[in-house]
Write a structure and sequence with these properties.
There is one protein chain. The radius of gyration is 23 Å and the shape is globular. By secondary structure, it is an alpha+beta fold. Helices cover 20% and strands 30% of the residues. The chain has an 8-stranded antiparallel barrel with strand order 14-15-16-17-18-19-20-21. Strands 22-23-24-25-26-27-28-29 form an 8-stranded antiparallel barrel. It has a 6-stranded antiparallel β-sheet with strand order 2-1-13-12-11-10, with helices on both faces. 42% of the residues are buried. The chain has 11 helices and 29 strands. A hairpin with a 4-residue loop joins strand 19 and strand 20. The termini are far apart.
Amino acid sequence: MPASSPSIDSLALEHRVDALFAHYTKQGSPGAIVAVMQGGRIELRKGYGLASVELGVPIGPHTRFRIASVSKQFTVSAALMLAAEGRLDLDAPPHKYVPELKPLPVTIDQMMRNSSGLPDFLELLRLGGHGLDKPARPEDLLAACHRNGHLNFTPGSRFLYSNTNFLLLGHIIERVEGKKLGEVLAERLFRPLGMTGTQLVAEIDAVTPDLATGYLGDAASGFRRAQHGYPQGGEGGLTSTADDLLIWSRHFDRPTLSLGDLPAQLAAVRPLAGGHANKYRRGVQADDLGGLQTIGHGGLWPGFRTEFLRVPEADLTVVVIANLASIDPWRQARTIARMVLEGHERLKPAPSALTEVEIAPLAGAWFNAEEPSLFDLAWRNGEATVTQNGMPFVLGRRADGWLAAERGSFEFAMKPDGKDRVAVDLGAGRVLAFSRLGQRDAVPAALDGRYASADCGATWTIQHNGEAWTMAVSGPLIAGGPPWTIRGLDADTIEIESPASWITPTQLAHLVRDGAGNITALEVSTGRIKKMRFDRVG
């Protein structure tokens, strides 16, 4: 029998998505694959651009990508299966299964929900001068977790994204099962569901058929290969295809695995302390699209970006996977979902776009010393862009009038609060007043010296030459390297900039003083580490 022809709606959708991705079909460009499924029917599955610019290989249905943090829900799924079998206690602390860990009052369920307070191991290593562009071994990453005894907050009280939660969860699964995590996931999930294009590829140099190359840059500045030297595990080690993610999505609608309520357990709600909502469930994120509830996850790794988006009320799944860091699958997946859902009786119009006129009075740097937190708001590339800890993100208009971060991997919303003040909602009921940053104070002259943290194993040596302040950094995996730059903020806070190849991270340090006013320690805060202590030594 001849293959059935696409519906006119599918054809129209394809043409509209073609226009959305036309920029990446130009000669020599990396790109993305887009897949749309509704009611179990694949409405669109199409590649745009090249999986390998060097070899001229196009992106197609069989192209594999590193899906990064979309892996987390699969790690959680295996853990939930073990819990259902009575082999894993979700209310137990992780050190019950990994005795090398410091005994901290954290539960495995809190780890699944990113409410544990455990610092991100990527940040722990970065504070010691090591980054994704430098080689590391799996035991190095686990050692960073074993070394740490710091908690960002009381477990269960807040949401803060941390890859440590899922790296450790994967390790716990290996301890319980006595097998490699990749074997467990294949046996319990991938083979039973027919996900033949999905596997855990921890090693960066492993030969993986049909795996796309990840790229940085853009057509104007040129493309270059993304470099990374870290092995990956339960936090982000999967390679997969658009087809396999559609198969996985269909399992949410028609569960067939041994744990029949697995999709419901992944999406199960557990409020934070004080009854505050946590949109992050168990390895998946709940959100809203025009009044329709969504569930899914994004993935970000040097050169790769993924969005796995489900709209259960409309029986709709949109998958966008890119091998170019400048592509935005989060936004594109939601644009495509709105194309499909036009005319849906419950879909509300998108809020009106922010304008440069609205943002102009709020542009500039804003600071809260108590948190401490610093961000810069600017109109950039036609959008309201906040840069915080070196990471830029776009603001959109929320239904209640607040200007909020579009992404859900962290919490940030702001609105004017009088002259030279803004209110910033950082989640869990924490609405803080930020003041416009005026003249920065000079770096305190008494800052010179050495500071060390047992939690990340780093030693910082701070010195100055005239008005220029720099810092030499060494850690468990590296000594030496380019100096870090220090800038003053106020009498008790400094800003530290780290050199890096992918982004340029910044962190704030609060100066801890004794009764005589001498600086005795630094409390360092990054995007995913809060108030980690570096004691003055020597």
